[in-house]
Amino acid sequence: MNAENKESESFKNRFQELIQACQVELKKTTQIGMKMLSASQSNSLLNEYYENLGRMAAKAVKNNEIDWKNEKVQDLVAQIEALKSELSNLENDVQTIKKED
């Protein structure tokens, strides 16, 4: 019986060690997940701020509030205006289709 008790105790110890290891790993995984979620939220905000800044800059260039004589900037502003016009036309087309019987 003594050998069985030792084996049973050894199994209990190994099982407890396994449970503790799992708890440690779960805690680490949870912490990593929370950090990744925070990073994702920060990245989304960063993209939003860059987008807002870009819109403000594009508007300022278009309205000659900023004299930015960079060919790439001028090209981007022209492409933005073309896409805005295209989107407006598409929206008008959609509204026309909706009104049709």
Count of separate DSSP helical elements:
2
The mean pLDDT is 88
* Outline type: elongated
- Structural class of the helices, strands and pairings? mainly alpha
| Domain count | 2
The amount of helix comes to over 70%
Distance between the termini: 89 Å
Evaluate the radius of gyration: 31 Å
Task: Estimate the strand proportion.
Answer: under 5%
Largest pleated sheet: none
Q: What is the succession of H and E elements? A: HH
Number of strands: 0
Query: Which residues sit in consecutive blocks of at least 5 with pLDDT less than 50?
Result: none
Keywords for this entry:
101 residues; mainly alpha; 2 domains; 0% strand; elongated
Explain the layout of strands and helices.
Blueprint: H1 2-62, H2 71-99
Helix pairs in contact: 1-2
Question: What features would you describe in this structure?
Answer:
With 101 residues, this protein is an all-alpha fold. It folds into two domains: 1-57; 69-101. 89% of the residues lie in helices and 0% in strands. The protein is built from two helices and no strands. It has helices spanning 2-62, 71-99. It starts with a helix and ends with a helix.
